[in-house]
Write a structure and sequence with these properties.
335 residues, alpha/beta, Rossmann fold, eight-stranded mixed β-sheet, 12 helices, 23% strand
Length: 335
């Protein structure tokens, strides 16, 4: 595969500032993402982790402006790709960004593929729309992409339909479609959820290899901390629509600081420990219609103090990380 040199420009390739994404329930709007600040640097893999309901997938859909019309809206904030705010673009201009400068791998490959179209035609589509290739050139490039993602017998299988493929093979096709136009940014939303453990490892290794080959930046959204340890450079832990801790991957695993991050790690299976040592997190992520007035994690947190239940903690610098926690930040200041 031909190596693509990294972009010579400086600064983050993707910068999210003050993002507030709301959903309608009845006559009211409720935030699922609340004042989110997040950056993705060039040639970096950022993992966004948290339980279901933390706002991870909503963040990805907000970046691509794929929220359900009428039932969701971006109420505030900026989403900048190379300094250009995507929220100011017309829908026509945004169509040029999707699949071209930003690619996305969805978590369920069967629903991401059109069951009535041959695999080759689906990979070719983006090349013809965004690159203006004729049918023969698009077919050659599609075949090369399917071979790059290691699809077995690619020349034969590109004439087949999605139902003739296994889950792992379908996911490889979805990755080929996302990478067809050599995007600057790849968003991968739970890309291994529907796959067995062996295929998960293969897909993750493939994503990491292609990201390095193409010189892309990748944001991988997951609740699986094993995924994070394998390929991420930096981790942002989300809870109830906010980042509660952000750190380099090695630092986060070696010394988690937020009580929620600690709880996630305790609840993660490890090959060197007995399954009986797992500690499930009590309670659940609060509903967007019933958000606590203070720290959203306070009702589940064993370290909570009175301020935690009444005041939202700010995201503050703490050494090599950012941390949103009254208790731990006060401990740092006192020390």
């Amino acid at each position: 595969m031909t190596q693509v040199p990294p972009s010579p420009s400086h600064g983050p390739v993707l910068a999210i500032r003050g993002l507030r994404t709301e959903f309608r329930s009845g006559r009211n709007w409720y935030p699922a993402v609340r004042g989110l600040d997040l950056t993705l640097n060039r040639n970096e893999t950022l993992a966004v982790v948290g339980e279901s309901g933390s706002g991870k997938s909503v963040t990805a859909l907000s970046i691509l402006r794929l929220l359900p019309e009428g039932g969701a809206r971006i109420a505030a904030g900026n989403i900048e790709l190379d300094g250009k705010d995507l929220l100011t673009l017309s829908e026509r201009d945004m169509d040029r960004v999707r699949g071209d400068r930003i690619g996305m791998v969805f978590q369920e490959p069967m629903t991401a593929l059109n069951p009535t179209m041959r695999i080759g035609d689906q990979v070719e589509e983006a090349l013809r729309i965004h690159r203006g290739l004729d049918r023969a050139a698009a077919r050659r490039e599609a075949l090369a992409l399917l071979e790059e993602v290691k699809l077995p017998s690619a020349a034969q299988r590109m004439h087949e339909y999605p139902h003739q493929f296994s889950g792992g093979m379908r996911q490889r096709v979805v990755i080929a479609m996302a990478l067809a136009c050599r995007p600057q940014v790849l968003l991968a939303d739970e890309p291994t959820t529907a796959l067995d453990v062996t295929i998960q490892a293969q897909v993750l290794s493939l994503l990491d290899e292609l990201k390095r080959t193409y010189g892309m930046s990748m944001m991988i959204i997951t609740h699986n901390l094993g995924v994070v340890a394998l390929i991420a450079d930096r981790v942002a832990v989300m809870y109830a629509g906010q980042v509660v801790e952000e750190a380099p991957v090695r630092s986060l695993f070696a010394m988690p600081r937020h009580p929620y991050t600690e709880a996630l790690l305790r609840a993660t299976p490890r090959v060197d420990e007995d399954a009986g040592t797992l500690a499930p997190i009590p309670g659940q992520v609060p509903s967007i219609r019933a958000m606590p007035p203070g720290c959203a994690y306070a009702p589940r947190c064993p370290l909570r103090r009175p301020p935690c239940e009444t005041e939202v903690p700010p995201l503050q610098a703490d050494g090599d990380r950012l941390l949103r926690c009254w208790v731990r930040n006060n401990e740092r200041i006192a020390a």
